[in-house]
Amino acid sequence: MHGRVKLKSTAQQEEEKRKEREKKLKAFVSTRDAVLKKRSAGEQDEEALHLTQLLLSSNPDIATLWNYRREVLLHLETLREKDEVQKLYECELHFIEVCLKVNPKSYGCWHHRTWVNTRLPRPDWTRELGLCDRCLGLDERNFHCWDYRRTVVKESGVSVEQDLEFTERLIGSNFSNYSSWHYRSTLLPRLRPPPPPDSAPDTSPAPSASPQVHSHRVCEEQLLKEYELAHNAFFTDPNDQSAWFYYRWLLGRAEREEMISCVYISREGERVSVAFSKPVHALAVGLMLVLDGQPQRVEWRCAHPRFRHSPVWLCDLPPGSISDMSNEHNLTVHWTEKHTHRDCALYTGCAESWCRDSATDQELFRSELSVEKSSVLQAELESCNQLLELEPQNKWCLLTIILLMRALDPLGHEKETLAHFQSLKEVDPMRSSYYSDLCSKFLIENTILKMEYAEVRVFSLSNKNLTTLCHLDQLLLVTHINLSSNQLVRLPPQFAMLQCLEVLEADDNAIESLEGLYHLPKLEEVSLKNNHICKLSDLESLASCIKLARLDLRGNPVHKTANIESEISQLLPLVTALSL
Amino acid sequence: MGTQVKDVIIKPDSPNTLLLDKHADYIAAYGSKKDDYEYTLSEYLRMSGIYWGLTVMDLMGQLSRMNREEIIDFIKSCQHDCGGISASIGHDPHLLYTLSAVQILSLYDCINVIDVDKVVDYVRGLQQEDGSFAGDKWGEIDTRFSFCAVATLALLGKMDAIKMDKAVEFVLSCMNFDGGFGCRPGSESHAGQIYCCTGFLSVTGQLHQVNADLLGWWLCERQLPSGGLNGRPEKLPDVCYSWWVLASLKIIGRIHWIDKAKLRNFILACQDEETGGFADRPGDMVDPFHTLFGVAGLSLLGDEQIKPVNPVFCMPEDVLQRIGLQPDLLS
Ligand SMILES: [Zn+2]
């Protein structure tokens, strides 16, 4: 079905083709019928092998025929001596090789080859490795062959070091070999891995030991070599994406610690909010709440019903348990699955309290940024800058420089970062939405950092061309937010994680959806001037914000709705100051 | 110096409007010549072929042109004692064709013409210790089959039949350095496989485990200057990969990261103005497989002449609404 070019042909050519096909079809159908007849008669003999061979050698994708062959082979096995069985299966391997020449990407062929190896009395792994080498020599991107090769490597005892050399050779002969770079990413974490933290001798790696999860295990010395290998590749051919993808993985390999990042408690409403370092399902992870030494039965809920997994979970304490201002309380939230917890004290006379780590840049966004020594990163940045001088239009280089600058000093490099994003959108307009979203994310991270340093609960990010909102779980304690004059189209469900929010300004955007303004218990004032709110139903979620008193909707299409004022006062009876 | 970008050139006289009537005629006629060479040779995947044809007809509002009774009888005759369903009569049952059959019967709202309990038993029986799924009793393991298993069970409303935690663990173990997924742990990322794995995680409510920003970047980098998408770096664009990449982006909430107008242009250029149908690339031979994915892709891009398609099941949204299935999508 792939790559068959449609050719113009004459009537005579058509007729010849038709005749030839008719002949082929006839032969195919008669052989197929003979095979089916034999199989339903339960015949498992040499002739069955011969007939299926005729069909499979030109149509290796007919899975049922391979199945029949396996049935026949298993039967013949029982009739023959060991040496004959060896011969039988060697013949089979030879036949598969012929089929692979016809179609090197046939799932059925490769699976059958794997199966034959499990039946061979004396499998020859060296020969199989040779077959893989030849096959990858013809097509270095054939993932079927790479997959088969991994099985062979495992059986034949090729070491990780030897395998790394193998990929280096392939990369050396052609940098643009994504398959080899990929394979390296799976090998590196297996290279002399440091002992696991709780060095139990039987900690066999779980199947989840993928490069995504365990990427941080790459040792430093090897990393420097990898940087160099990637440099060689992209200095030779700066437009080859393979090495750049690999390099970005090397830079961002750190992993965020799993923890309870914040606990917030409010006397009003007697409510607790808990933020985690990753989305969790509160019921599944064993969350336990202890108030003044007493475990409490509470019902955990997500900030928004759209989510089953969320980084923020809420619960109400039993009525009367913390409402008296003159009492002091101590709260502990346990994340039993991860053996971690966080305490929070609520002192006499305080209406609210919270406990969290004062977040620094490295901790906060460590899942994206490397914790590599800054001298190394500085050197990397310098060489990328050199390359950019030679190739000022190179998008891969521009993006990588942005990432390096963020790893080194996100706030110090903010201006340059914005300029590079601008260039990226110009040289690669097809992906401008991606760059806009990524830039928005970085600006939000920077604003969170600035807010941290200033120790305030005001988040202000207006007039910055924001196209998306993210990291909203980090804004759990924010009381005032200003997002005016951006390009936002929605306040997403995640916005409901801003449990302390009192004032929202989001004028002059393109907001059509207010889904995230949902059960925000302290929200009093919302300004949404000049947005794209069209229907009364778009405002429905606001009804769940019980303190909302001031709402500014001037400059939205919704004002054209008939009887809009009375409709809104019916929907939001508590809003006393409405501007339309 | 410098790699030549592998891509195609779209000729100025390529089709640039959607030829829906021609496509409907093409699919309606396909299979009417049952002794045709191409048709006979594709017998080993007939059940999927019927699913492609029926789904694209339904998306175009032309399902009634297909022979419902004949198809239902055919499916009934393809269910085996083990509960699994084969591509055709005389072929062996397999998860791929079991899913296709269940999809077809869901389109026709008559799932009970087959023995549903036995289908569930068949799917359950193929789950391995490590949570993975074999495609059939011969033991080939692939994340495609994990998707087939949960998609089949979801359509049957029997998701609790398998060990879900293990199934999820296996799929996550196939996640790669680029955020994508391959066939088995350690296999290179591939758009078709990514579609299966993000679809799997959507159906099982585990999409929060995806690194959506990283994966989304890799996926949007599949778009080539012609507007078409490839399935892996340095490969040619293709209508079917366009669907797999696009559907994956939709599932992880990042569909706006590609240039929609350019992709639409590419897909339209893959139509055959004479015969109807879509090919993998402009100027190639058409087939029902690429015709479905061309039309479904245009639907995801928002073409209002086509019914909305669900990115996870590649079926019309109205069918899934009727069943009451609403797989998660990231926002
Ligand atoms: Zn294709």
UniProtKB/TrEMBL annotation, chain A:
Region annotated Disordered, chain positions: 1-23, 192-212
GO molecular function: Rab geranylgeranyltransferase activity; zinc ion binding
UniProt domain Rab geranylgeranyltransferase alpha subunit insert-domain: residue ranges: 260-359
Class in the EC hierarchy, top level: transferase
Protein name: Geranylgeranyl transferase type-2 subunit alpha
Gene Ontology cellular component annotations, sorted alphabetically: Rab-protein geranylgeranyltransferase complex
Keywords: Leucine-rich repeat, Phosphoprotein, Prenyltransferase, Repeat, Transferase
Stored Pfam families: PPTA, RabGGT_insert
Organism: Phoxinus phoxinus
Function field: Catalyzes the transfer of a geranyl-geranyl moiety from geranyl-geranyl pyrophosphate to cysteines occuring in specific C-terminal amino acid sequences. Catalyzes the transfer of a geranylgeranyl moiety from geranylgeranyl diphosphate to both cysteines of Rab proteins with the C-terminal sequence -XXCC, -XCXC and -CCXX, such as RAB1A, RAB3A, RAB5A and RAB7A.
Any one Gene Ontology BP term: prenylation
Family recorded in the similarity comment: Belongs to the protein prenyltransferase subunit alpha family.
Family matches, as InterPro entries: Leu-rich_rpt (IPR001611), LRR_dom_sf (IPR032675), Prenyl_trans_a (IPR002088), RabGGT_asu_insert-dom_sf (IPR036254), RabGGT_asu_insert-domain (IPR009087)
Biased composition (Basic and acidic residues): 14-23
UniProtKB/TrEMBL annotation, chain B:
Cofactor: record remark: Binds 1 zinc ion per subunit.
Keywords: Metal-binding, Phosphoprotein, Prenyltransferase, Repeat, Transferase, Zinc
This protein's GO CC annotations: Rab-protein geranylgeranyltransferase complex
Residue span(s) of domain Prenyltransferase alpha-alpha toroid: 18-315
Catalysed conversion reaction: geranylgeranyl diphosphate + L-cysteinyl-[protein] = S-geranylgeranyl-L-cysteinyl-[protein] + diphosphate
Cofactor(s) in the UniProt record: Zn(2+)
InterPro entries assigned to the protein according to its UniProt record, in alphabetical order: PGGT1B-like, Prenyltrans, Ptb1, Terpenoid_cyclase/PrenylTrfase
Keyword Transport listed: no
Protein EC: 2.5.1.60
Gene Ontology molecular function: metal ion binding; Rab geranylgeranyltransferase activity
Pfam families tied to this protein: Prenyltrans
Top EC class, one word: transferase
Subunit-structure text: Heterotrimer composed of RABGGTA, RABGGTB and CHM; within this trimer, RABGGTA and RABGGTB form the catalytic component B, while CHM (component A) mediates peptide substrate binding. The Rab GGTase dimer (RGGT) interacts with CHM (component A) prior to Rab protein binding; the association is stabilized by geranylgeranyl pyrophosphate (GGpp). The CHM:RGGT:Rab complex is destabilized by GGpp. Interaction of RABGGTB with prenylated PTP4A2 precludes its association with RABGGTA and inhibits enzyme activity. Interacts with CHODL.
Listed PANTHER family: GERANYLGERANYL TRANSFERASE TYPE BETA SUBUNIT, GERANYLGERANYL TRANSFERASE TYPE-2 SUBUNIT BETA
Family: Belongs to the protein prenyltransferase subunit beta family.
Job description of the protein: Catalyzes the transfer of a geranylgeranyl moiety from geranylgeranyl diphosphate to both cysteines of proteins with the C-terminal sequence -XXCC, -XCXC and -CCXX. Catalyzes the transfer of a geranylgeranyl moiety from geranylgeranyl diphosphate to both cysteines of Rab proteins with the C-terminal sequence -XXCC, -XCXC and -CCXX, such as RAB1A, RAB3A, RAB5A and RAB7A.
Protein name: Geranylgeranyl transferase type-2 subunit beta
Species: Phoxinus phoxinus
Organism phylogeny: Eukaryota, Metazoa, Chordata, Craniata, Vertebrata
